[in-house]
Amino acid sequence: MTLATDAAAGRPSVPRRSIRTPYPTWFFLPAAVIYGVLFLFPTLASLFFSMTRWTLFNWTFIGFGNFIQFFNEPFLVGGLINTLIYATLTSGLKVVLGLLFGVLLTSEIWARDYLRSVVFFPVLVSTVGVGITFTVLMHPTEGLINESLALIGVRGPGWLTDPRLALISVALVDVWKGVGLATVIYIAGIVSIPRDYYEAARIDGTNSMQRFWNITLPLARPATVTVVLLSLIGGLRSFDLIWSMTRGGPGFTSDVIASVIYKQYQAGFYGLSTAGNVVLFILVALIIVPLSIFLNSREVSR
Amino acid sequence: MPRSKNWSVLAGFAAGLTVMTALSGSAFADTTTLTFLVPSGEENVARAQSLAKAFEAANPDIKVDIDTRPGGAEGDNLIKTRLATGEMSDVFQYNSGSLFQAINPQQNLVDLSGEPWQADVQDIFKKVVTAPDGTQRGAPIGTGMGGGIYYNKKIYSDLGLQVPKTWAEFMANNAKIKAAGKTPVIQTFKDTWTSQLFVLGDFFNVNVAEPGFATKFTANQAKFATSPAALKGFEHQADVFKAGYLNDDFGAATYDDGLRKLATGEGAHYPMLTFAIGAIKTTYPEHIDDVGFFAMPGDDAAKNGLTVWMPDGLYISGSSEHIDAAKKFAAFVASPAGCEAQTAALGATGPYMVKGCSLPKDVPGAVADLLPYFGENGAASPALEFVSPVKGPSLEQITVEVGSGIRSPADGAALYDEDVKKQAQQLGLPGW
Amino acid sequence: MSPQRQYISGVLAILVSTVVFVIPFIFILLTALKDKKEASLRTFSWPTSFHIWDNLVQVIKARDYMLLTAFVNSTILTVASVALMVVFGAMVGFVLQRRPSIWTSIAGFFVLVGLIMPPAVVPTIWVLQSLGLFKTLHGMILIEVAYGLSFSILLFRAFVATIPRELDEAATIDGAGSLQLFFRIILPLLKPVVVTVIVVQSVAIFNDFTNPLYYLPGKQNVTVQLTLYNFQSMFDTSYNLLFTNVLLITIPPLIVFLFFNRQIVAGMTAGAVKG
């Protein structure tokens, strides 16, 4: 949530002479032990297995064979494109809708508390539950969505069965579920903008559109950065919802990298799937780290 | 500071809960408790419960605790993970054939070749639970199955249709069914595994046209894309789609939708394994007699026969601490009493693999259609996965694409050939 | 905005948000009220007769009251791991923000790794086994803490920046040790962000499905999301029971939400964005 604020956190420290610092390093210890033993060590161990053909029962070292194999996966290219589409679409919509809702829900709108609750609640529901519900709602002939469309004379598409639509449908459900968090972040960002700015602008005779473009948008920038980074990481790694709704289907048409990796894992190609994890990690890092540096540096120099 | 009180309350609460978890882990001291892992799903659980109940009645000092796991590829993965980490339940139910070979039976499972009940197990089943060292590691649980096409008998009699022996006859029937306003072929691609029958169920016909295909396939000498007989399955899958014979919601329908459509006569044909009879019987008992079954039609009416699936195996984990009790349970499952317990739960769904097991007289129509293929003069051949360890993991996605017109049959077959390569390499087979 | 426009836009917003966000939940509720036949039609209609009680009993009784065991397990798991995560995460965030050094950068890198890198299942099981923690709730609790720490540390570190250093100095001069300083001064001041962490992480852990599937096998160890998974294959012809189950396991997050509704926004305002 606060990748945006990392830059602000690095406040210069005053060198200290006292022997007993109030900030002892051992405060790291409990967290470091749990994290190191249960996450870092197994993950590093898995790096070794990414260079092996591994059945869980035994392994043979094959160097970079898995990485070559992974890049030759027939579905990888499609999965890569889908991942980028999915991540861009979900984070784009979350920014736009989150900002819109954020502005709406900080204005003097009627029933504001009700609206805030309603928008945020889907964030709390389990992904599996959401997946089951929307799969039923999006059924091409018996689902509520298409039956409602039929009432006004529109023949609804096969949301999850049309190869051109499946990925986009899942992305829309992802936005439905996640826009509440983006909204809350924006609400927080907008609320923290000093009221005086708006008063001053109002006195200068600006209209509400101008105030939005000249005050809200630039000053809500930290919130935008947070929403963009969070939803991009989420989108690039996204797996649960796609898996529970389409399993990458129909066929391979809504496969993303994470689901390609998971299928290799399921099929018992453990070395290959571990190599896939490494590739995914590098991909996410390559996109997120420069973006994070770029967004944060612009913020500081503003 | 007033706050700190709240925190200590919270901490105390957390500590209390931790103590609770410690207490809930205690086990029974006197009786042996066997853990028994089965795939989830109504039929599997019902069968396991019935077996456990009958077994506990005969062996009061042993308790059987049933645990479920996901089916399909997720289940494969879970089984491998738990075997590799030595955390498998004492006994578990899992596929025989190529999937059995992929779990390193020699290393992970208890050798059951010396058990007295092996004498009563049919040889055809013994083959599919034999480890590379020639030992048997499993007992049969469930019944033999056929992979072919269910048909709705009412539609057939209303339209005066004959059971087809060739693909041409099958398609001619479909045309008449469509003209009568019914769905000729039901497909249910929401459950992707249901899409593979046209390809997998065609293996009897492949074997007739190209004897020895399985051996060559295992040795990387025969391919689906380059063998005209093996390619037929993919072509059939595309044929029914192109002719517009599928139900409107084929992409979103589930296995259960498929059974409903078949049983209620919304659709005429549903390619499926015969274990579905159990589900039809429990869910649509009033329609069980409307459902019949025939083998996958091929090119030559005189040489038509059934592709059969062996039942799952019951295995004992090498890491089990109750091997004696587990062996007793396996002996029970592979005995006539075990067959009876299974029939009591599910009715007759097909032939058992244990000599001395009999089926009740009034079997459902589809089972009656199935049994002759297994008989003395029956024409049946085990599916490819029981005669070759090579099975690609992505077949179900490929058949969905071919069956939805996203990919051509030739492309699909070629993609599948590519898909099996990884599996063969993983198994360390020569020639790949 | 004129009062009239305000009124119209308000009504419009309520209408749209109800259609988009509330109807799916009403659909869950309606389906849970129906009997099997009616539910299988999957229509959005008022039930012709009410079966919520039968459905509830059936779902709760299924597989020897598995759902009740699951609720107990999931509650213990969620409460314990969130409690540990808050304390340990806040300790790290505090020192990380106050003492920038080469170690801080390294720790920052590992925090990012934890956010991006998917965990490796089998080696993790080996570690758990060698510690005797596999198949135990204790082990599962520590796993959830390990996986959730990164996110929590990021939140805490940003928030600590808003607490003036002068407070630490004053407390130190008064003779407070580092433990006292942290638990009596800093942690109470972190309350808004603690609430955020509690809400976000407890929802994530309560709704976690994959990790318990691997690290917590066994019938007595089942968690609520796994019941949904079990029921999905068991009840796949019975949408009424499936949706009753969805409804039941949505109630705890709903309660958390009702309790913390206001604090969520407050916590975000104070911690996550202002920095």
Q: How many structural units, i.e. domains of chain B?
A: 2
Mean pLDDT of chain B: 88
C-alpha Rg of chain B, in Å? 24 Å
Overall CATH architecture of the largest domain in chain B? 3-Layer(aba) Sandwich
| Helix content estimate of chain B | 40-55%
Explain the layout of strands and helices.
The complex is a heterotrimer of chains A (302), B (432) and C (275).
Chain A: H1 6-9, H2 29-49, E1 52-54, E2 59-61, H3 65-72, H4 76-106, H5 112-120, H6 127-137, H7 144-151, H8 166-191, H9 195-203, H10 208-219, H11 221-237, H12 240-245, H13 257-266, H14 270-301
Antiparallel strand pairs in A: 1-2
Helix pairs in contact in A: 3-14, 4-8, 4-11, 4-13, 5-8, 8-11, 11-14, 13-14
Chain B: H1 3-23, E1 32-39, H2 42-58, E2 62-69, H3 72-84, E3 91-94, H4 98-101, H5 105-108, H6 123-128, E4 139-141, E5 145-152, H7 153-159, H8 167-179, E6 183-185, H9 197-200, H10 203-209, H11 213-218, H12 228-242, H13 255-264, E7 267-273, H14 276-283, E8 291-295, E9 306-309, E10 312-316, H15 323-333, H16 336-346, H17 365-374, E11 380-382, H18 384-387, H19 395-403, H20 409-427
Parallel strand pairs in B: 1-2, 1-3, 6-7, 9-11
Antiparallel strand pairs in B: 3-10, 4-10, 5-7, 5-8, 5-9
Chain C: H1 3-33, H2 36-40, H3 52-98, H4 102-116, H5 121-130, H6 137-160, H7 165-173, H8 178-189, H9 191-206, H10 210-215, H11 224-234, H12 239-273
Can you characterise this structure?
The complex is a heterotrimer of chains A (302), B (432) and C (275). Chain A has helices at residues 6-9, 29-49, 65-72, 76-106, 112-120, 127-137, 144-151, 166-191, 195-203, 208-219, 221-237, 240-245, 257-266, 270-301, and strands spanning 52-54, 59-61. Chain A is mainly α and 302 residues long. Chain A has a two-stranded antiparallel ribbon with strand order 1-2. In chain A, α3 crosses α14, α4 runs parallel beside α8 (166-191) and α8 (166-191) packs antiparallel against α11. The longest helix of chain A has 32 residues, at 270-301. Chain B is α/β, with parallel strands linked by helices. Chain B has two domains: 32-143 and 311-366, Periplasmic binding protein-like II (D-Maltodextrin-Binding Protein, domain 2); 145-309 and 368-427, 3-Layer(aba) Sandwich (D-Maltodextrin-Binding Protein, domain 2). Chain B has helices at residues 3-23, 42-58, 72-84, 98-101, 105-108, 123-128, 153-159, 167-179, 197-200, 203-209, 213-218, 228-242, 255-264, 276-283, 323-333, 336-346, 365-374, 384-387, 395-403, 409-427, and strands at 32-39, 62-69, 91-94, 139-141, 145-152, 183-185, 267-273, 291-295, 306-309, 312-316, 380-382. In chain B, strands 5, 6, 7, 8, 9 and 11 form a six-stranded mixed beta sheet that branches. In chain B, strands 2-1-3-10-4 form a five-stranded mixed beta sheet. Chain C is an all-alpha fold and 275 residues long. Mean pLDDT of chain C is 83; it is low at 271-275. At the A-C interface, α1, α2, α5, α6 and α8 of A face α1, α3, α4, α5 and α6 of C.
